[in-house]
Write a structure and sequence with these properties.
Number of helices of chain B: 14
Structural class of chain B: mainly alpha
Number of strands of chain B: 2
Helix content of chain B: 55-70%
Distance between the termini of chain B: 33 Å
Oligomer: heterodimer
CATH topology of chain B: MetI-like fold
CATH architecture of chain B: Orthogonal Bundle
CATH superfamily of chain B: MetI-like
Strand order of the largest sheet of chain A: 2-1-3-13-6
Distance between the termini of chain A: 75 Å
Largest sheet of chain A: 5 strands, mixed
CATH topology of the largest domain in chain A: D-Maltodextrin-Binding Protein, domain 2
CATH class of the largest domain in chain A: Alpha Beta
CATH architecture of the largest domain in chain A: 3-Layer(aba) Sandwich
Strand content of chain A: 5-15%
Strand order of the largest sheet of chain B: 1-2
Radius of gyration of chain B: 25 Å
Strand content of chain B: under 5%
CATH class of chain B: Mainly Alpha
Shape of chain B: globular
Chain lengths: 422, 330
């Protein structure tokens, strides 16, 4: 044999040996230590602090469990959700994961059979009587409960600068007519009437959902998500027209700003109002702004557009027992009272102590008890992610061209595409 | 005896390349076929549904307003990116070819950005081209320089303007008369924000183009230029009639390499502008990512993937055929 052949044979032997090593069966892992892996996108500020507080409570009760904090950074979970999908589809679910209450959970994970129902837990803990009916409706599907809400945020809040309003004798508008009259006055004074920061397009979708809720009755609004309210109907058209008109009063650089930068304009008195969820309260507190005023946006008095972060139990969770205890803490009074003041949200339960919360959150707790609760579109409660993605695309175009007919046709098509409308 | 040796050699060589052939067959071509199948299925949602849907997904794709904008953006980006890279790359190569001192140093200097990931480039240029803090009016990055020399400030990648022929202008009215009125819609315009992405991409890739042209220039025998000069050609004529024609194969390679980068671009957009404002810097790859992994529209996402594959193939395959043929001729 020539030298070349010898070398070839040698290298072949090496390659085969490497393959054998690679394919060698893995040694069985040592018996699992007690662990609990929680997946979320809470990585900064009050959210992270609240999450760690919950971990602390857990470890007080179960000191021998090691908690793995699996977080993926990124606002509203845009980076986290694809990561979670990859893990779930790959058969490697975390023990419990953060997911928005409602269709984001149900259409993504429940109808596809990835979750375990939590009916027993709800019964044992008596949650059916402490969570409001609106919430129980949104977390259930097919007669079962699928996740435990830890907090509630309100999406429909109009935030304004009290000092600016008092100096001009203005009051927050209750109807769209009042809103536009006030907007004209503000414009005349050189103040941008409405601050918007839709660098993430969800902020526009958020504004749209608030206008939808202010344009039609809560029943009609809820009907949009079940196909009972016609997307081609006059109410949706009216809402889009109102939105197109509102967009004439927003800051010209809205597409470059984030929601908190838009809030800065209100804080500095450069803009009169902003319509954004109640995480603005935490932003104001963090920035030391004390003159913040709030009211329900036009037409939504008595309506609470809600969104919530919940935790669920995936099938085949590696540490199922520990995960159930985690859910118990998430739904407990103790857990919610520890978490929510830090996160800047209110409890999903209605028996939390109001004294633990700041002035805005106190009023939100009162409204939570008496208002009609409807689900938020932009934050996953009302519609599936697939649907929201399509609506976001329609919104992106609408914010630029403000073509009401085209946007309405797009919305109706989106409803058909996801199979809700016929 | 010699026959046996050859076949033994052949067996070994086949065995040696077999693992990589298998891996490529499965992980490249197998998955391409899989994507192609998914794109023709009804898979919409997390659970796979591979029932036959035909070309519905493609029909929907081309009817989708966002995708139409993406096509416009891809054309705008490709034309601007290739154009600026070739002009700057060729310019730098010609300058370096003049036998300046420290040529090695400059060559590495210009080539170096290519070694950086598009994500890093994107983040850095996002900072450099930031329009400043709108709330405080404080300027940042390049706008500070522009301000210092009195050039009007730019909003860079946050500018939502799409420059297009106005239907009311003389040109627009003429186009409408000859039934080309659709050319006056924004879908046939130039999104201003895209220019920022082009700047970043050009910064990264023009050094590479320079290196290719420099190699091309070194391959042109000095005698040819000398002969032209002896014949009385001016320096410009030497370039026009000798150098540029001989660089044509290099330009072709550059167009292929940059063209496929520009069709597939994703990371730079994700790091710099996240498709915004509106869809001004959206590209098919970004649309594919959002459709598939945020919207769970797997079959729709796969149809975008196949579309991208086909467009890139249209660019690459003729080139491969051309170069194999040339090799065979040599």
């Amino acid at each position: 044999m020539s030298r070349r052949t010898i070398w070839s044979v040698l290298s072949l032997v090496v390659v085969l040996a490497l393959l054998l090593v690679a394919c060698r069966p893995q040694p069985t892992p040592p018996p699992a230590k007690k662990q609990l892996e929680i997946f979320s996108w809470w990585t900064t500020g009050g959210e992270a602090a609240g999450l760690l507080k919950l971990f602390e409570l857990y470890n007080q009760k179960f000191p021998d469990v090691e908690i793995i904090n699996a977080t993926v950074a990124g606002g509203a979970g845009f980076e986290a959700k694809p990561a979670l999908k990859a893990r779930m589809l790959g058969g490697d679910p975390p023990d419990s994961f953060q997911v928005h209450m409602g269709h984001e959970l149900i259409d993504t994970w429940v109808t596809t059979g990835y979750m375990e129902p939590l009916d027993d837990l709800y019964k044992q803990e008596g949650w059916e009587s402490v969570f409001p009916k609106g919430v129980l409706e949104i977390v259930s599907y097919d007669g079962h409960y699928w996740s435990v809400p830890v907090n509630i945020h309100r999406s429909n809040v109009l935030w304004y600068n009290k000092k600016v309003f008092e100096a001009n004798g203005w009051k927050p508008p209750a109807t769209f007519d009042e809103f536009f009259a006030l907007a004209e006055e503000m414009k005349a004074k050189g103040i941008t009437p409405l601050a918007l920061g839709d660098v993430g397009i969800w902020a526009s979708t958020h504004l749209f959902e608030v206008i939808l809720a202010g344009t039609m009755s809560p029943e009609k609004y809820k009907g949009l998500w079940t196909g009972q309210t016609d997307w081609n109907g006059p109410e949706v058209k009216k809402a889009l027209e109102t939105m197109a008109k509102m967009l004439e009063y927003v800051n010209p650089d809205h597409s470059a700003l984030s929601w908190d930068q838009a809030n800065d304009l209100v804080i500095q008195g450069k803009a009169g109002m902003t319509i954004m969820g109640d995480w603005v309260d935490a932003d104001n507190l963090a920035k030391g702004f004390k003159d913040s005023g709030w009211a329900p946006p036009p037409g939504t008095k008595g309506i609470f557009v809600a969104l919530s972060d919940t935790f669920g139990l995936p099938k085949n969770a590696p540490h199922r027992e520990q995960a159930i205890e985690w859910l118990r803490i998430c739904g407990s009074k103790e857990g919610q009272e520890a978490f929510n003041p830090l996160k800047g949200s209110i409890c999903a339960r209605n028996d939390c102590n109001p004294e633990l919360f700041g002035p805005y959150l106190k009023t939100a707790m009162e409204d939570w008890q008496k208002d009609t609760i409807v689900p938020s579109l932009a934050h996953g409660a009302a519609a599936s992610e697939a649907w929201v993605t399509k609506i976001n695309d329609v919104m992106t175009a609408f914010v630029t061209d403000r073509d009401v007919a085209k946007a309405q046709a797009g919305m109706a098509q989106a409803c058909k595409d996801v199979g809700v409308c016929k | 005896m010699s026959m046996r040796r050859i076949s033994w050699d052949r067996v070994i060589s086949i065995l040696l390349i077999l693992p990589s052939i298998l891996a490529i067959a499965v992980f490249v071509y197998g998955f391409i076929a899989w994507s192609g199948w998914v794109s023709l299925s009804n898979w919409d949602g997390l659970r796979p549904d591979l029932s036959w849907a035909g070309f519905v997904n493609y029909a929907k794709l081309f009817a989708n307003p966002r995708f139409q904008i993406d096509l416009r953006n891809t054309v705008v980006f490709t034309v601007l990116f290739l154009g600026t890279c070739i002009v700057i790359g060729l310019g730098l190569a010609i300058l370096l070819d003049q036998g300046i001192r420290g040529e090695n140093f400059f060559r590495s200097l210009f080539l170096f950005p290519m070694a950086i990931s598009f994500i890093v480039t994107g983040v850095t240029w996002r900072w450099l081209l930031a329009p400043g803090d709108p709330a405080t009016g404080r300027l940042t990055g390049i706008n500070v320089l522009l301000d210092a020399v009195g050039i009007p400030l730019s909003r860079w990648y946050t500018d939502p303007t799409v420059v297009h022929i106005q239907p009311t202008s003389a040109m627009g009215q003429f186009l409408q008369q000859i039934d080309l009125g659709f050319l006056t819609t924004p879908n046939f315009g130039l999104p201003v924000a895209m220019i920022s992405i082009v700047i970043a991409a050009t910064w990264q890739m023009s050094g590479y183009v320079m290196a290719m042209y420099l190699a091309g220039l070194r391959g042109i025998p000095e005698e040819l230029r000398e002969a032209a000069r002896v014949d009385g050609a001016s320096e410009w004529q030497v370039y026009q009639n000798i150098v540029f024609p001989l660089l044509r194969p290099v330009t072709l390679s550059v167009v292929i390499v940059l063209g496929h980068i520009s069709l597939k671009i994703f990371d730079l957009v994700a790091a710099m502008s996240k498709k915004g404002p509106g869809f001004a810097t959206d590209v098919p790859a970004y649309f594919m990512f959002e459709t598939t992994f945020q919207g769970d529209h797997y079959s729709q996402g796969a149809s975008i993937a196949i579309f991208l594959l086909v467009t890139v193939s249209l660019l690459v395959i003729p080139y491969l055929v051309y170069s194999t043929r040339r090799e065979a001729e040599l």
